[in-house]
Amino acid sequence: MLDLKYIRDNLEEVKKNIQIRNVSADPEKVVNLYNKKNEVLKRTESLRQKRNENVRIMKGKLSEGERLKLIEAGKKLKEEISALELSLEKIRSNLHREILKIPNLTHPDVPEGRSEDDNLELKRWGKPAEFTFKARDHLQIGNELDLIDFETAAKVSGQKFYYLKNKAVMLELALVRYALEILEKESFTITLTPDIAKEDIVEGIGFIPRGEESNIYSLEGTGTCLVGTAEITLGAYFSGQILKAEDLPIKLAGLSHCFRREAGAAGQYSKGLYRVHQFTKVEMFIFCRPSQSETQHSYLLNLEERIYQGLDIPYRVVDTCTGDLGGPAYRKFDIEAWMPGRGQKGDWGEITSASNCTDYQARRLGIRFKENGKSVYVHMLNGTAVAVSRTLIAILENFQQEDGSVKIPEQLVPYTGFSRIN
RNA sequence: GGAGAGGUGUCCGAGUGGUUUAAGGAGGCGGUCUUGAAAACCGUUGAGCUGCAAGGUUCCGGGGGUUCGAAUCCCUCCCUCUCCGCCA
Length: 422
Fold this sequence. Notes:
By secondary structure, the protein is of the alpha+beta class.
C-alpha cells in the first residue's frame, strides 16, 4: 500500500497515476477516511488521557467518598471511550479496504498504455527456429512422446491440471536444479518454501485472497491459501522485522508449487500447459535499500536473461505498460519466449517477469531497516528464475525435430542425463 | 490428536490487579581512563500512530472479556518445549 500521508499531500499525482494504470480506486475517499480517522483518534486519545489521569490519582490514599466519586467518573469515561473505539474501528476497516485498491506509483519511464498490446519491446535475443517441416505444438508433442497427460488429470483433478510423465518429469527436475545452482552461485539463499500461506500475508504481498475475482485458492475454515507464487512466502519471510542495514541487499530464491484458479481464462492462447492451475516455479526475491532498487531490478532481469540464454530459448524483453502493471509493481520487465506452437504461426509467450515493488509491499508487511537511527521501509523486488510449465512449452516446441524427437539444450543435459527425448 | 510447561524490549530475565512511567543483566552506541586495546566506571539504547513541535496515545504471542484501573484475572485462537499417540 501507499503511505497515507503521501496520498493526502500528493492527491493529484495519485489520481493521475490511478488513471494511467486503468484501475478503479478512490483516493479522495481514502483521504477523507484518513482525516476522519485522525479526528476520532484525537478525541479517543484525549479521553484515554483523562482516564489515565483518573487512574493515577486513585493509586494514592483517598477518602472513601473521593474514591467513589472517581470510580463514577471512570465509569463514564469508559463508556465514552468504548463508543469512540467502536466507530474508530469501523473507519479503520473502511480505510483499509479502500487503500488496498490504490496501486503503487509508476516509474516515469514506463510506457503508457491500456493492455499488453501497448507493452514496449526493449530487445530480442536468439533466432526463432525455422522448421523445414510442419511444426507441432507442445500438446501434440507431449502426446506423441507420452510426456503430458491432460485427460487423466481432468478426470482425477479437473480441467487445467496435468500429469507429467516419463522424460518430462526429469526435464522438470533438471530445470529446477539448473536454476537453483545458478542462483546459489549468485549468492542467493536458496529455499524450498511452504505452498500454503496465511490470508493476511497473501494480502500484504498484494494479492486478493478471497472473492469471485480472486486468483487464489483459499482453504476453507483455516484462514490460509494455496500460494500463487513463492513471491508470497519469500516476501513475507522478514515480515514485522527490522533488518540490519549492512545485511542489505538480501537475496532469497524459493522453489514452490504455484496454484491459480484462473477463473474464466480460456481460449487458444491459454491452451495446454500455458495456463494451468498448478505448476512449479523457482522465484527470486531481493530486499534492498531504496537507492539500490533500480540497479537490483536490472540485475534480476539480467539473471533471467542468462538463465534463458543458457537454454538457447529465443526471447524478447518487454517493459510492461501502465495499464498492464499489477497493483504492487512500480515497474515490470517480462521475458517472452518464442513459442512456435502458439497462435497460427508461433508467437511470444510470457515466461518470466521481474518487478520492482519499491516499498509498496514492505509497508503492509512491516519490513524495515535502520538508517541514521530512523527506520525506513525496504524496497522489495521479485523475479521469475524458471517457470517450469511454460519453459517446457518453449523447450518442446523450439527444439522439436523432424523425426518427432526433442533435443535437450546442451547446458541442461548434465541435469537431465539425456540429450534427446524420443 | 491427548497431557503438562511456557510465550515479556536486540538477547537473557524479574514481574500474579494500582510507586512498572516494564526491575536487573548481557549486547549495541557515546564518553572517562589508556600509546592503543582490554578491564573498570559514567551516560545512553524498542516499535507504531498522531502532531510543526512540546506532548499525547498504543503495543508484554493474536483476538475478545471482566474492572474506575490488566503484562498480571477470565475466554478463545496461534506458536514453542517435554511426554504419549499417530504417521511419510
